[in-house]
TrEMBL record:
The keyword Cell wall biogenesis/degradation does not apply. SUPFAM superfamilies: MetI-like. It comes from Pelomonas aquatica. Keywords: Cell membrane, Membrane, Transmembrane, Transmembrane helix, Transport. Residues 95-326 form the ABC transmembrane type-1 domain. This is Peptide/nickel transport system permease protein.
Length: 335
C-alpha cells in the first residue's frame, strides 16, 4: 500500500513537472509581449529594455525556468501583471468562487444525471430511454453560454427570480466579512440572512446552467455503464430468482458501476473547476476561469503558470481521492 502511494506521488510529481515545462515553453513562443503590457505601447526603448531585463527575459530559457522552480519551491509564484499582487493572493481570492460554483453544479448534475441514466438503461429502447437520450444530447451539444444568456433573460429579466450577475447584490458588497471565500459559508458565519438569500439567488442560476451540462454527460455515461451490467449473466440469474426490477437495477447492477462513476464524477468535477470560463463570463462571476482568461490575453505568464499548477494539483488530488474511494467500494482494489 505504502509503495503504491509512493509510486502514485512520483507519477503525479513528474506529470506536474511536465505540465509546467510545456506551459512555460508555450508561453515563451506566444505572440504576446508581457513587457508591453507593463510599460505600454508608447514607452521608449530604454524603458522597454530595463523592464525586459528586470523580468529576466534576457536570460536563456533554462535559466528562467530554473529560477521559476526555485521560487516555486519557496511558495513564490511571482507577481501578476493583471492585478499587481502576488499570484498566490490572487488565486486564494478567485478559487473559492469557482469551487463554490462547481461544487453546487456537480451536485445538481449528479443528483439528476445519475438517476436519469439508470432510468434510461432500465427502459432500454423504450420511450423513457428516448427521452433521456434527447435530454442528454441537447444538454451536451447546446453551448453553455447560450443556456446562460437564456437563463438571464427568462429568470432575471422577465421573472426576477435570479439575482443577476456577480456573487451577491451590490448592497451587500463588502458587508460580509471574508473568512473562507465561500459566499454561502461566510454569510452563514456572519448570521446575515438577507445576504445569504442574495448569495443564493446569484449562485443558483449559474450553478444550474453549469450543472445541466454536467448532468447531460453523467446521464449518458451512467446509461452506458448500466447497459453493460444489465446484459450480464448475473442479472439474468437475479431476474429468474424473482427479484423485483428495483432490486435488480439498484441492488445489483448499480452497485457494480460505482467505481466507474467515481472516476467520471472526479473528471467531471475537475472539468467544471477549470472549464467554467464561459459561465463565469456570462454571469460576471469573479472566479478562476475569468482570472486565467484575463491572464492569457495579457500574456501574464506568472499568473498562467500558477493557474496551470493549481489545475494540475486539483486533478492529482481528485484522482488520489477517487483511488482511495475505490478501496472503500471495491474490496478487490484493497489487495
Amino acid at each position: 500500500m505504502k509503495s503504491r502511494w509512493i509510486r502514485g506521488g512520483s507519477s503525479a510529481g513528474l506529470a506536474l513537472l511536465g505540465l509546467l515545462v510545456l506551459t512555460f515553453m508555450i508561453g515563451r513562443v506566444m505572440p504576446l509581449d508581457p513587457v508591453l503590457a507593463i510599460v505600454g505601447p508608447d514607452a521608449d526603448r530604454a524603458t522597454y529594455e530595463q523592464v525586459y531585463r528586470q523580468l529576466g527575459l534576457d536570460r536563456p530559457l533554462w535559466v528562467q525556468f530554473g529560477r521559476y522552480l526555485g521560487d516555486l519551491v519557496q511558495g513564490d509564484l511571482g507577481r501578476a501583471l493583471l492585478t499587481g499582487r502576488p499570484v498566490t493572493e490572487d488565486l486564494a481570492r478567485v478559487l473559492p468562487a469557482t469551487i463554490e460554483l462547481a461544487t453546487l453544479a456537480i451536485l445538481l448534475g449528479a443528483l439528476l444525471g445519475v438517476p436519469l441514466g439508470v432510468w434510461a438503461a432500465s427502459h432500454h429502447k423504450r420511450w423513457p430511454d428516448h427521452i433521456a437520450r434527447v435530454v442528454g444530447l441537447a444538454g451536451h451539444s447546446t453551448p453553455v453560454f447560450w443556456f446562460g444568456m437564456m437563463g438571464l433573460l427568462v429568470f432575471y429579466a422577465w421573472l426576477g427570480w435570479a439575482g443577476g450577475i456577480g456573487r451577491i447584490g451590490l448592497g451587500f458588497e463588502g458587508a460580509v466579512p471574508r473568512v473562507t471565500g465561500l459566499m454561502l459559508v461566510d454569510t452563514l458565519l456572519a448570521g446575515d440572512t438577507a445576504a445569504l438569500q442574495s448569495a443564493l439567488r446569484h449562485l443558483l442560476l449559474p450553478a444550474c446552467v453549469l450543472g445541466l451540462h454536467s448532468m447531460a454527460y453523467l446521464s449518458r455515461m451512467t446509461r452506458s455503464f448500466m447497459l453493460a451490467q444489465l446484459n450480464q449473466e448475473y442479472i439474468t440469474t437475479a431476474r429468474v430468482k424473482g427479484l423485483s426490477r428495483r432490486q435488480v437495477v439498484w441492488g445489483h447492477a448499480f452497485l457494480n458501476i460505482r467505481v466507474q462513476l467515481l472516476t467520471i464524477l472526479a473528471l467531471a468535477y475537475g472539468g467544471l473547476l477549470e472549464g467554467a470560463v464561459l459561465v463565469e463570463t456570462v454571469f460576471g462571476w469573479p472566479g478562476f476561469g475569468s482570472y486565467l482568461t484575463g491572464s492569457l490575453l495579457l500574456g501574464d505568464m506568472n499568473a498562467v503558470m500558477g493557474s496551470v499548477l493549481v489545475i494540475g494539483l486539483l486533478f492529482v488530488a481528485l484522482n488520489l481521492t477517487a483511488d482511495a474511494l475505490y478501496r472503500v467500494f471495491d474490496p478487490r482494489a484493497r489487495s
